[in-house]
Amino acid sequence: MINVKVARYLPEQSAAPFVQEFKVPYDASTSVLDALNYIKEELDPSLSFRWSCRMAICGSCGVMANGIPKLGCKVFLRDYEQGLLLEPLAHLPVERDLIVDMDAFLKHLEAVKPYLINNETTAVKSATTHQQTPAQLGKYKQFANCINCGLCYSACPQFGLNPEFLGPAAITLAHRYNLDSRDQGKAARMPLLNTAEGPWACTFVGFCSDVCPQQVDPAAAVNQSKVESAKDMLIQLFKGKL
Amino acid sequence: MSYKPVLTRTWWLKHRAFKAYMLREATVLPLLFFLLTLCCGIYALWQGPSQWQAWQITMKHPAVLAINSLALVASLYHAWTFFQLFPRVMPIRLGSKTLPAQVLIAGQWAGLVAVFVLFTWLFRGSL
After folding, report:
1. What number of CA atoms fall less than 13 Å from residue B74's CA on the CB side?
2. Same domain, yes or no, for A189 and A211?
3. Which of A50, A165, A220, B34 has CB 3.0 to 4.6 Å from B71, enough for a Cys bridge?
4. Pairwise CB contact (< 8 Å): B11 & A157
């Protein structure tokens, strides 16, 4: 048995969040998500949390485990024998128990135009295939592994201080498309990346990369975007547009 | 109705990674002192020989020496963190391969040693 404390928030009962403790049986293969499901099924059906795939690819079950953002399905009770406190992902508004409002995060993702942009007409698009060499793929592949779980936003104190900061995942996504040989949308993405809410708000704390369950290294992408933003500024300067 | 926890002023005390980050950023403080003494030195040089000598005496004060030694250690620590981050910010790609991070880190340390040797050689008589 492990004592699992869960931060509860039931707005219809109380305006303030509180902590509830549960005793959960476990073995070597019991994940934190298994523990939450055990609590919901056996101890308290009112507990709310998100989950879907159970195999660290859907990115739904992000929680703070003893203050560190983790995917519930990717961490195990055996590593928390001293006790475990589960809280909703930090820096995002909490709607209920472990469920956070991801709107700010999704809006930031959308803002960076995370899709291939090119000038081809629809007819040309459907008629051509876009081949890439392994070298061209290698440039962005690591950054394409993001599963939009939002752990990096909960790890980022700059996002915690300023929710307008585009944040690690969104900037990584912008960088991923900017590096893609099939894409011509860099000019459309740079104006947003050049603002104070873009990569320049990052101070390279680097914790986003530590917590990333897919080893995307968002901190690297954000800081590579600073280099791109500086290059873009110089180009605009020489073109006489600044 | 949702609630949003506020980030407290002590957020950085909650994890080792944040403490390491704050230590890295705090290295600027002793460095700021060193830069101020350097500016005072230039000003003293402009003022004349007596001021220059007074500045040199001040610089030999144990407290000044201690803070400047701390500035040196802090700068080296900052360099160590910077050199590790550099390959992630500016990865060097040769064809389809990325130059290993260790090579870039070693290169930066070699650069630091080269600058140190050059300045030791330049000022070899005056120390």
Report:
1. 19
2. yes
3. B34
4. yes
pLDDT tens-digit series, residues A77-94: 999 999 999 999 999 999
Q: pTM to 2 decimals? A: 0.92
Q: Would the pLDDT of A242 be above 90?
A: no
Q: Are A225 and A199 a contacting pair, CB within 8 Å?
A: yes
| B11-90 CATH | 1.20.1300.10
- Which residues of chain B lie closer than 8 angstroms to A15, CB-CB? 1, 3
**Cβ contacts of A206 on chain B, cutoff 8 Å:** 17, 21, 85
Q: What is the pLDDT at residue A122?
A: 67
Residues with Cβ < 8 Å from A28, sequence gap 6 or more? A76, A78
Cβ-based neighbour number of residue A1 at 10 Å: 9
Residues in chain B with CB shorter than 8 Å from the CB of A68 are 15
Q: B88 with A219: CB under 8 angstroms? A: yes
Quote the pLDDT of residue A126. Answer: 66
Kindly state whether residues A178 and A142 are assigned to the same domain. Answer: yes
Same domain, yes or no, for A16 and A96? yes
The count of domains in chain A is 2
Question: CA geometry: angle at A228 spanning A222 and A231, to 5°?
Answer: 150
Same-domain pairing of A61 and A157: no
Query: Would the CB atoms of A68 and B93 count as touching at under 8 Å?
Result: no
CATH number at residue A18: 3.10.20.30
Asked if ipTM goes beyond 0.95, one says no
Question: Which of B11, B14, B89 lies nearest to residue A224, judging by beta carbons?
Answer: B89
Sign of the dihedral through C-alpha A238, B88, A90, A178: positive
Residue A204 has its nearest CB partner, among B4, B14, B85, at B85
Beta carbons of B7 and A91 less than 8 Å apart = yes
Is the domain of A127 the same as that of A215?
Answer: yes
Domain region containing A38? 2-100
Q: Are residues A30 and A70 in the same domain?
A: yes
Q: Tokens 């308290």 correspond to what residue?
A: A44
| Residue A125: pLDDT over 70 | no
The answer to whether the CB atoms of A15 and B14 lie below 8 A apart is no
